[in-house]
Write a structure and sequence with these properties.
single chain, alpha+beta, seven-stranded mixed sheet, about 25% strand, globular
């Protein structure tokens, strides 16, 4: 007797799922555990496996169809067995607890230009607040991050890390023979992850009833967009609110020979090499260049990094950056700073790059050249001038509410030309959407972490030591070598360290910088500390699990800031209920944060005047 394949309930609130793809076709033999199809719901793409053995004799739900939980998808039985075609009725689903009654959705028409991490988050938030949202995307949903940036880069880095770990397992008595790297499979896995996440975003758009328009938008006026659709048709669309999330594209420097040489690629090209290059020269020592240099060096590529500035990773702490450079060089990556590329020529191997170092030009040959000198705003086609939107050479100007100078027009993310990070764009997207729908939200970038996925990982949040000096802040530095942390010692031999920047008078956390295993995960706790204006004692009061890398944060603060510094006298920070002083401090903090982001030197907020009093603890 045929067995029904039904839509599974993947969560308590799931009511339906979309059939994304049938992996098995009618007539195929199936075994228990075989993947039959893929379904999409919300931000998840899941596989439905066979619970019976036999033949897939009939597919009832077609690709693209929405099927309720327990609704019929297909039949498995014996070949030639006859079954009914009508779908079975879905079993009743237990409803979620009723939410508080909401006001009827408004009629505010909202346009979002760009479907990256900033745009799709803004679209979802606007829809949640009752807006009728249209998202216009000229390429693919997910933007640079999901398709040709953050996610595919980390997928390749993960493969490289797995290769390295396999080779290093001999230290633990596990001997693994790595015969080769199947580069096509590495690329296939990277693409599958990207597709799954993009499919999830598509599902979110559908779940929030957001209209997707594939095409290029430009301003016809302050409230009207001229949209050239992918099918070649044109349409003028008028909106009450417009959020610009146009993103960025790789910058191409005016170096002679770069555009003419097919072996010179940007980050998108470097993620899709047909095979692992034998040699790679990276122009640019920023995040993109250093991450891809790390990945390909692990795959056995001979890597050279050329950076025009005196140091790599200009936004990261200088001391830890210098440590990272030594670690990379010890692993075979050649790094040159204060080195300027003069030109690129054709060569038998691929390309010859002429680099000026110390006043002399030296040639370097490589099979591939990665041009990673940064990114620029992708706003040229928007027609900003037609709407009178203020910008600095394409970098849109906004305030802390993400408002442009034109009423009802907002801008977020990379197209501002400042902090080009996906998580910043998402945070700004929420702020813009909330303000567009009548809320009062403000963007504060004080807790924005920067992460570099190297070996070991590198992350920082708040002030670097260089920035603290520049702003004239009285600070103390605490350092903790991860060699003294048990879990780090197990994971990577204890390579790396943690560095804290602490305010001298009140011991508040001003900045944290981590070079070590799981640094990009650990930095979240540090961002929370800065956002809460936590002191060293606040952090130490939280018990950290042992053995973990995260306890190194606790160890470092306790050993260097409590016992040595406050050996005979401890301080506590008592918040008063003086609302006026607290409000004054909050305003001062906002000005301070804005100044840090724009590299200004403002007066520092005073905690003494903000409702904090310093008292000695009982002896």
């Amino acid at each position: 007797m045929a067995v029904e394949v039904k839509m599974p309930q993947l969560g308590l609130t799931m009511e339906e799922g979309t059939v994304s793809k049938w992996v098995k076709q009618e007539g195929d033999a199936v075994k228990v555990g075989d993947v039959l199809l893929e379904i999409t719901t919300d931000k998840l793409t899941s596989e439905v496996t066979a619970e019976a053995e036999g033949t897939l004799i009939k597919i009832v739900a077609q690709e693209g169809e929405d099927i309720p939980v327990k609704g019929l998808l297909a039949y498995i039985g014996e070949a030639g067995e006859q079954v009914g075609a009508a779908p079975a009725q879905a079993a009743p689903v237990q409803a979620a607890a009723p939410a508080a009654e909401k006001k009827p959705a408004g009629e505010t028409k909202v346009a979002v230009i760009g479907g990256g991490p900033g745009g799709y988050v803004a679209a979802i938030r606007a829809a949640q607040l009752g807006g009728k949202v249209t998202l216009i995307e000229k390429n693919k949903l997910g933007g640079t991050c999901l398709n040709v940036g953050c996610i595919p880069t980390k997928a390749i880095l993960h493969a490289a890390e797995a290769l390295t770990e396999a080779k290093e397992m001999a230290e633990y008595g596990i001997h693994i023979e790595v015969k080769n790297v199947d580069w096509k499979q590495v690329q296939a896995k990277k693409n599958a992850i990207t597709a799954q996440l993009v499919g999830g975003v598509t599902g979110l758009m559908k779940a929030n009833k957001i209209q997707i328009v594939e095409g290029t938008a430009s301003f016809a006026s302050k409230d009207t967009l001229a949209v050239l659709k992918k099918d070649g048709t044109k349409e003028n669309m008028t909106f009450d609110k417009i959020i610009i999330a146009a993103g960025s594209v790789p910058a191409v420097p005016p170096i002679p020979g770069v555009k003419e040489n097919a072996n010179c690629v940007d980050s998108t090209g470097a993620l899709s090499f047909e095979e692992i290059p034998k040699s790679l020269l990276v122009i640019g020592g920023g995040v993109i260049g250093i991450e891809l240099a790390t990945a390909y060096s692990k795959f056995g590529t001979e890597v050279t990094v050329v950076e025009a500035a005196p140091k790599l990773l200009p936004m990261m702490d200088g001391e830890l950056t210098a440590q990272l450079r030594k670690l990379m060089e010890a692993k075979g990556v050649k790094i040159m700073t204060d080195a300027k590329v003069q030109s690129v020529e054709a060569a038998a191997v691929g390309a010859k790059v002429n680099v000026e170092i110390g006043g002399k030009v030296q040639p370097f040959e490589a099979e591939k050249v990665l041009v990673a000198v940064g990114r620029r705003t992708d706003t040229e086609a928007l027609g900003l001038d037609a709407a009178g939107i203020a910008n600095d050479r394409g970098r849109i100007t906004v305030n802390d509410k993400m408002e442009t100078n034109v009423p009802n027009v907002y801008a977020i993310g990379d197209c501002l030309g400042k902090v080009m990070l996906a998580h910043v764009a998402s945070a700004q997207g929420e702020v813009a959407a909330e303000n567009a729908l009548g809320e009062n939200a403000v963007y504060n970038g004080a807790t924005n972490p920067s992460c570099v996925y190297t070996d070991p990982e590198f992350a920082g949040v708040g002030l670097t030591e260089e920035k603290a000096k520049e702003l004239g802040i009285a600070y103390q530095v605490g350092k903790f070598p991860l060699m003294a942390n048990g879990k780090s010692l197990i994971m990577n031999g204890g390579v790396g360290s943690i560095k804290f920047i602490i305010g001298t008078e009140y011991k508040e956390v001003l900045g944290v910088h981590i070079l070590g295993p799981r640094a990009t995960d650990l930095i979240g706790e540090c961002a929370l500390a800065i956002g809460m204006e936590a002191t060293v004692e606040d952090i130490i009061a939280a018990i950290h699990a042992h053995p973990t890398v995260t306890e190194a944060l606790w160890q470092q603060r306790k050993e260097q800031f409590i016992f040595p510094i406050n050996k005979n006298q401890q301080y506590k920070y008592k918040k008063t209920k003086d609302k006026q002083k607290l409000d004054e401090h909050k305003c001062s903090l906002l000005r301070y944060t804005a100044a840090v982001e724009s590299d200004l030197q403002p007066p520092l907020p005073s905690k003494e005047g903000a409702g904090f009093s310093k008292t000695k603890s009982p002896s």
